[in-house]
# Entry
Amino acid sequence: MHILITGASSGIGLITAEALLEAGHQVTVAARRYDRFANLQSMYGPEFLLAVKADLRVDTELDNLFHEAKSTFGPIDVLINNAGVSRGPGWHQDGRAMDVLQLNLMAAVRLSQLVLPDMLERKQGHIINIGSVAGHVPVSTLYSASKFGLRGFSLALRRELLGSGVHVSLVSPGFVETDMTSKRKVPKIPPGKVAELILRLLKRPKAEVIIPAYYKILIALERIFPGFGDFLVRRRQMLETS
Ligand SMILES: NC(=O)c1ccc[n+]([C@@H]2O[C@H](COP(=O)([O-])OP(=O)(O)OC[C@H]3O[C@@H](n4cnc5c(N)ncnc54)[C@H](OP(=O)(O)O)[C@@H]3O)[C@@H](O)[C@H]2O)c1
# Structure
């Protein structure tokens, strides 16, 4: 299969790209740090790997990525919208805050828009979106906005496409050990666990998978007792200021 994965220069994306190549797929990888693809390029060669340098906040670069991928390996069978960034508090004073929405949500929507015509014509295809538990539990304002948005997009698109032969899956991880969380002192799962899940989804698509599964308890608590989340946040704020 021809699989396009964004944000494959580190973390979940890189390890998933390796696993896909190892499984014998043709893979297009994209990110800004092109030099990070050197190892994959020397291991798998141009027959299996296309590496594209792209800033996915920019529409023309998204379009270019899609056209380069299609002209190299043919129509895309699977799109994995993985690229993402998070930002700390103070988004309203951060001039680059909108990058979070542009990359985490809008780039995924635009790439889906580009791959869908071929998928629908061929009556087959799979779009896998990498969301987050932050798409269930509001934690970081714009990051949660992007992941709630991506979750809504993914679940609704899946329904829109029921019966078309095109599948849509959402992966919602809790904390994963990557550059994104390097400063967080919390329990984390290795990114390989998410890669394994993505490979399983290729065989058996699912609407959404929360990984690790114990985050389902947190999500249920948030839904039933949202005030408890407020209490925890307030308590942390008071400890930080005391
Ligand atoms: N780590 C976690 O705990 C966690 C939890 C839940 C969900 N997630 C989600 O998992 C996905 C992967 O994140 P990760 O944890 O693997 O973090 P990561 O190691 O920081 O990877 C982020 C990837 O996104 C790419 N990226 C960032 N800005 C980009 C841009 N403007 N254009 C193109 N690519 C860009 C980065 O590549 P370049 O910098 O080279 O462009 C990198 O390859 C994200 O969607 C994230 O929200 C992560």
